[in-house]
Amino acid sequence: MMIFSWQQSDWHRLARYRNKPHHGLLINGQSGIGKREFSFELCQYLLCNAVSGEDVSEEDNGPCGQCQNCRLFNAGTHPDFHVLTNELESAEGRLSLLTDYSNRYLDSAAREKKTKHSRVISVDQVRGLIERFSTHAHISTTKVALIFPADCMNINAANALLKLLEEPPPDSILVLVTANPSHLPATIRSRCMTQTLATPDKESALAWLAQHLPEQQIDIALTLANGGPLEARRLSDTGFLQHHQACLIGFAGVVAKQVNPVDFAGQLNKLEFEQLLAWFHRFVTELAKFCVTGIKPYWMESIRIDTQNVSVERLYGLYDRISYYRRIARGTVNEQLALEDLVLAFQRVVV
Ligand SMILES: [Zn+2]
Q1: How far apart are CA 346 and CA 319, in angstroms?
Q2: pLDDT tens across 13-72, in order?
Q3: Per the domain annotation, does 215 fall within a domain?
Q4: Distant-in-sequence, close-in-space partners of 344: CB < 8 Å, separation ≥ 6
Q5: Same domain flag for 24 and 112
């Protein structure tokens, strides 16, 4: 099974779904807890025909891995399984099956030429899915589509998908996966059965990370990832973990007016945008908390920011501004301009 140790009870709960499938399933949960892997396993299980019709018991271990459906699924060639994702996910290849399946709906040759990959799931991709869903299942008894991250659908894509949810073709299941369900239109959410996957307890997360990161990185990585172990590993893989100290020094320099905000924004733009925004949110929250309560964040040990003239009100304003960019980050946003805007806003928190 591809699922993680902390997902056992989620699995037992969701595996029962196979007996009474709803045509729209919305899987959510914090980022970096293994939603991708879990959803793939679930989709394979929905297609597997080894135990169909029988009640799922506690002993159930998931897809059989042996039947024709399972073999085709794992080879990345199952004709009744469809994946819609964005260029960034597909290019990153965090799950090779995801790349294999999503390439049916993406122009991979065009993608290779780009330096910045799109985060949008387009209406053309959804239209392609609607077309394929209009025919009967080829091998399995069911057609399954996975849309990940579902909040990356632009408004046209979401509207097109809504039609599919309103009039689902027979024997079809749509599995939408997102860390930000509130970013999906309410009309889509209301037509899906929602299931939230658990965030692992700290012990399980640390145990898993111990197999993947150097010991000295584990604690800080998990803290920065808000407890999501896979996100913690990714923070290290993308280099963010190694660079976040430099970000802190830069921000301290901006407050002290020793660092040019536009130059600094240019340096930040080399980092992964969404990771940076998530960290920036955290940083601003900790700074506001320090100003109000005097509780020192961990980084105060090494970085000094003079908080005497910091306006907490403006910090809250900055927090909202970051939220705004995090919301639109899934669409098309000029990252350099966004970062300049945020760094300049950060400089203005000192009055
Ligand atoms: Zn099987």
Answers
A1: 10
A2: 888 878 777 899 999 999 999 999 999 999 999 999 876 445 555 446 789 999 999 999
A3: no
A4: 261, 262
A5: yes
Distances (CA, A) of 15 to 10, 55, 76, 150: 8, 10, 22, 21
Instruction: Report the predicted TM-score, pTM, of the whole model to 2 decimal places.
Output: 0.89
Q: Which domain holds residue 119?
A: 5-199
Expressed in angstroms and rounded, the spacing between residue 15 Cα and the centre of ligand 1 is 14
Within 10 A of 74 (CB to CB), how many other CB atoms are there? 14
Task: Find out whether 222 and 209 touch, Cβ atoms under 8 Å.
Answer: yes
* CA 49 to ligand 1 centroid distance, Å: 5
Same domain, 255 and 129: no
Q: What is the reported pLDDT for 55?
A: 52
Q: Ligand 1 centre from 62 Cα, in Å?
A: 9
Residue 228 lies in a domain: no
Residue 64 CA, ligand 1 centroid: distance in Å: 4
Of 264, 249, 275, nearest to 344 (Cα)?
Answer: 264
Is 119 in the same domain as 66? yes
The Å distance, Cα 129 to ligand 1 centre, comes to 24
Question: 86 with 103: CB under 8 angstroms?
Answer: no
Same domain, 68 and 162: yes
Quick check: is 232 in a domain? no
Q: Say if 189 falls within a structural domain.
A: yes
Residues lining ligand 1 (ion), CB within 5 A?
48, 50, 63-64, 67, 70
